[in-house]
Design goal:
This protein has helices at 3-28, 31-52, 58-76, 81-91, 99-104, 106-117, 124-134, 140-146, 151-168, 177-199, 210-226, 231-244, 270-288, 295-308, 317-330, 334-348, 350-358, 370-381, 385-398, 402-433. By secondary structure, it is mostly helical. The protein starts with a helix and ends in a 5-residue tail after the last helix.
Length: 438
Amino acid sequence: MTSTTESAIVAVWRNESVRLLAGLARMTHDLDLAEDLAQDALVAALEQWPHEGIPRNPGAWLMSIAKRRAIDGFRRDEVLRRKVALLGHELEEGEMPDLAAAVDHIEDDVLRLMFLSCHPVLAPDSRTVLTLRLVGGLTTAEIARAYFAKESAVGQRISRAKRTLTEVGASFELPAGEERAARMREVMQTIYLVFNEGYAATSGPSWTRPELCLEGMRLARMLAALAPGDPEAQALQGLLEIQGSRLAARADAEGHPVLLEDQDRTRWDQLLLRRGLAAVERATALASSGTPGGSYLVQAMIAACHGRARRAEDTDWAEIARLYDLLASGAPGAVIEVNRAVAHGRAFGPDAGLAILAALPDGALPGSHLPAGVRGDLLHRAGRHLEAAAAFDEAASLTGNTGERELLEKRAAACRRAEASSDASVSTGSRQARPPLD
């Protein structure tokens, strides 16, 4: 197999695996079986595509292979023979020409899989990790790093969650009415986490994983369409699309991270930005009409402040700081405080931001590079370069992302150069001020 073919298969799998799994889960009502069938389809692709070429519709091809494996398995297994009759009209090989129509259901299938993963019988942590595994396509190791947990523990949690859904006979259909409303919060949180893993990857050589961002935005649009009167669902779509509009500008030509204030804003995706701002306006209008908004609406309003600034110096940091204060009062947390420190540092000076960081309890965000990274930035702006360098070094040692680590190391080195330059300037200034020796 050539490296080009292998890369193409990997790309197809990344794009199609979640939709494939979602469709198979709907048809088999068995998550483990659906995962096995999807893996069988991948093995078939690895065997056949190098010789036969990648099919015009690889998603339909993978679904076709998985369906045939399902039929073969059902026919061999006496225990599952009843399912052959139940699903006969849907899985008969004679209906394979309708695969394109089957693929058309996949949008609903992914959302159905997400609501299943957020079933109330599962603990909140289990809902999130199961959705990240099944819908987000993250590996168990990536989820473990995202949650600062052991990989074995996350794997066991995923297995228990799937077993629990099987034991309670959880429905694979989209919930309706009050049940749907009750699960909306968990679904939105999970979409948000999927997007964030793509926006700032916890590991790997790349700072971003655009495919996860695209998946998060796609799911957020689907959810917003499903709940047009929910300001939080509209706000989530707006938040993710505004942030997603900056993806191309977040890295330079060599793939190195570019911070927000240094980005070429002409590279922002204007279509995504307009759609995101429109979604925020819809959310704001709904909230103004009496339907209460929440943390996603405030975060979307913060993102909109950045999105409306044509230049970094046009950013309304005072308004952003006010919004972070509002967010902290309604949804307090260490991550919010770190971001609030950034906003106050820009709006009112670095000492204001450092004071917020200093108020964080000991051990807040254990293992995270965020507090140290923000402290380094604020210390650098305050002219305390050596302290800033030490903070950036600490942050670099904690991040698992190669690109982010390189950026932090560069910032530490820049701070040391700034300190050396400052020392030289002071030294030179002293000689000039000193009276002539004679």
